Amino acid sequence: MSESPLLSSYPPYPIELDRAEGCELIAKNGKRYVDFYGGHCVCILGHNPPGLRDALNKQMDRITFYSAALPLPEREQAARELLSISPKGFGKVFFVNSGAEANENALKFAFAATGRSTVVAVEGAFHGRTAGTDPLCGGPHRTPHYPHPPFHIRWVEFGNHDALEEALERGDVAAVILEPVQSMAGCRTHPPEFVQTLNTLAKKHGTLVIADEIQGGLGRCGAMWSHEALGMNVDLITTAKGVGLGFPVAALISHSRFGEPGKGLFGSTFGGGPLACAAVSAACKAVAEKSVRENTRKVSEVFDRLREVKGVKELLGLGLLRGVRVSKPAKEVKDGLFARGFIVGGSNDPEVIRLMPPLTLSVKQAEAFNAALADVLA
User: Which of 34, 72, 247, 297 has the most CB within a 10 Å radius?
Assistant: First the structure.
């Protein structure tokens, strides 16, 4: 095989993909793999969902693109659909193209709204790979890919509510940005004491809370948004990945009480294009369906039984965003599952594999995975 013309990214699975159907990937040799990774939580309703195809085909017959220089009913409709599944009080949406871009605009919003320039980040976080988000990933001892972030960062150890209190009591923080469930860190969930400290001190000091819901949102963690499942009060929500069902689109959602923090603050050529907005509307309608929420609950209960599997040391996360701490190296377990027809994710923790399947995964498929993992760990 000739050398690839692509710059390297993630180490790929050794599979020549032919097509995908529902929760399965089909290789060119005909072998089927159940997808417990979903392309980083993107394929939230599985692969090639009919609702996405129908929405895009219908939109293609009208208009495929125009920027925000012209008002588009598709953009207004997508914003209303997104707000219909957002927490009470959220009233404004800004569409962009990726999760990192949504997070950068959330930070810009917070700086403008507060007049401050310090951000609190949590060790182990992942928020993107741009100049504004890459410095917020990992922790203070990580070597950043950009030498100088465009703002001040104050790091807090994961789960340490005393450190969070110390960071916020100075009263100079524009925003705390965090994933309610830290996916790349192994699906770690912020403990109740940390959440309570955040709720109390952010309100006291006028600090905005940005919930990075790019992987945990849209019903994946039980509640529509993972911060709701934890009782976390937030001011800004970022969403991407599953919100377009595989079409590249993302959004910043802000609470109504902030209004417009600054004229001319936001802009994006491709953000909120008509095809992207058609995908968003289709996604929001689908994840709001009672049948999808009920299936998520049932499959989550199957995953709960992984605690009983010999060799599973700990089960982390919520709903269908799960980390499984195993007794063997995670890479070895991933390879064993792949050989048995299951694709899962790794994490920054060498003992933890991640499960991020479509919300349409069947109970039968989840039970087959449990059996396969038990076999690998035996």
Answer: 34
Burial of 258 by CB count in 10 Å (0-12 exposed, 13-18 middle, 19+ buried)?
Answer: middle
pLDDT tens, 229-268? 999 999 999 999 999 999 999 999 999 999 988 888 999 9
200 contact partners, CB below 8 Å, separation of at least 6: none
Alpha-carbon gap, residue 106 to 16, rounded angstroms? 38
Closest listed residue to residue 357, CA positions, set 73, 33, 64? 33
Predicted confidence at residue 145, as pLDDT, reads: 82
Helix 192-205 and helix 161-168, axial crossing angle in degrees, nearest 10: 10
Query: DSSP class of residue 11?
Result: P
Q: How many residues comprise the chain? A: 378
Given a cut of 70, the residues of the chain with pLDDT beneath it are 1
What's the CA gap between 316 and 187, in Å, rounded?
6
DSSP helix/strand/coil, 85: coil
- Please name the residue ranges forming H helices in the chain: 38-41, 50-60, 73-84, 99-114, 161-168, 192-205, 226-229, 274-287, 290-304, 330-339, 363-377
Query: And the tokens for 85?
Result: 């599944």
Q: pLDDT tens across 92-123, in order?
A: 999 999 999 999 999 999 999 999 999 999 99
Q: Using an 8 Å Cβ cutoff, are 36 and 343 in contact?
A: yes
Provide the CB-side half-sphere exposure for 60 (13 A, CA): 6
